[in-house]
Amino acid sequence: MTSGTVVLLHAPRATAASWGDLPEMLRSYGLDVVAPDVPDETGPRYIARVSLIITATDPVAPLVLVAHGTAGRLLPGIALAQRAAHRPVAGFVFVDADLPRRGQHDHGAPENTLPMAPDWPEAPCGYLRTHPDPAAPSKHEEALREARLRGWQTTEQKPPTTVPQSLSELITAL
């Protein structure tokens, strides 16, 4: 797949700095990258703030939305906001991320039901598991297994392959 802009979405209550040098490394692979910084929001407020920042960057469509951690469950809402802005999404990538669930709530508050379009996902999905440790299975191992069951592209990053290289290859494979 050829993407327009790769949007790196950090976990809520983290910052864009949590991506480290990943944005710059992806740019060195020739990708257009945006990493919105939304440190103080969660759930629907995170979705709204991220969407405003994406709009302000005037990204090249189509977008590839890449989520880390708990931002994964927000991808359907972010995609819905992009669709409303007439910005197509070409793919979704989960990097050690939670998977979205229908009717999922943010922090258990019923009034914070996360939005999900009825036809989500409307683009291919992939899952990148970084530094897998078979001796210490985690919830991300379960998410990786579920992604495989859904028929998504999956990758387990293992040295000497770097995270930027694995992510770039996964985006291309979508």
User: How many domains would you count in the coordinates?
Assistant: 1
Which architecture per CATH? Answer: 3-Layer(aba) Sandwich
Q: What is the number of helical segments per DSSP (H or I, 4+ residues)?
A: 5
Could you give the count of β-strands? Answer: 6
**What is the CATH level 1 assignment?**
Alpha Beta
Characterize the largest beta sheet: strand count, sense, and whether it forms a barrel: 6 strands, parallel
Instruction: Give me the CATH superfamily.
Output: Alpha/Beta hydrolase fold, catalytic domain
User: What order do the SSEs take from the amino end to the carboxyl end, as H and E?
Assistant: EHEHEHEEHEH
The largest sheet has its strands arranged as 2-1-3-4-5-6
Share of residues in strands? 15-25%
Q: Tell me, briefly, the overall form.
A: globular
Helix-strand makeup class: alpha/beta
Assign the CATH topology: Rossmann fold
Mean pLDDT score: 87
List low-pLDDT spans: none
Using only C-alpha atoms, the radius of gyration works out to: 15 Å
Separation of termini? 6 Å
| Helical residues, percent | 25-40%
Structural commentary:
The model has no long low-confidence stretch (mean pLDDT 87). A 6-stranded parallel sheet has the order 2-1-3-4-5-6, sandwiched between helices. The protein is built from 5 helices and 6 strands. It is of the alpha/beta class. The chain has a single domain, classed as Rossmann fold.
